[in-house]
Each structure stands twice: as C-alpha cells, then as structure tokens.
Amino acid sequence: MAEKLEVVVCYATPMQEFLFPLAVAPGTTVGQAIEASGVLAAFPEINLVTQPVGIFAKKKTLDTVLRARDRIELYRPLVADPKDSRRKRAAKKDASASRPAT
Description:
With 102 residues, the protein is α+β, with helices and mostly antiparallel strands. It has a single domain (5-98), classed as RnfH-like (Ubiquitin-like (UB roll)), CATH 3.10.20.280. The chain is 28% helix and 25% strand. The chain has three helices and five strands, in the order E-E-H-H-E-E-E-H. It has a five-stranded mixed beta sheet with strand order 2-1-5-3-4, with helices on one face. Strand 1 and strand 2 form a beta hairpin.
C-alpha cells in the first residue's frame, strides 16, 4: 500500500482564510484535492473554470499531479488592477511635487 501525500488546500477572502490539510494518494491531481478538501462547499463563490489555481504561488492546471507537502492555492480575482493603482499613485505624487511649497 502506497503512502499518502500530505498537502494543504488554501483559500482566503478579505474576512477569513481556509487552510485544509489533506492526505491524498499518490497520483492525485490538484482538482481532485480541491474537491476532496471541502473548500468548494465552504465557499460557493469559487469557480474553478474561471479562477486560477497554483502550487506555492506558481499557476498550475487542475490536472497537475501533486507531490508531498504541496500547498494548493485558489486565487481570487483582483479588486483593482495593479498597473492602474500604480499609475494613480505616481500621478498623485507628481501632482503634489509640482505644487510650489508655501
């Protein structure tokens, strides 16, 4: 009998985080582990068709085979575009630097 692999499924909202340790059989995929974890029942807003997933901050597909101690992460959509946010901060900084000191 093959040993089980220890993995963790992670998901976070602005108000709570979900860390679910799981023992899976060798050959288990990311998608199978997510389904087995119960995260989809706990957070019905998760849509695996549109939301990216990854292992240790590297995007992966649902059919990626897991290794021992993998941390499976489900990513939420960004609230704001990082490039737009940076442009706004830079414009604000430029505007305040352009004003003469009084």
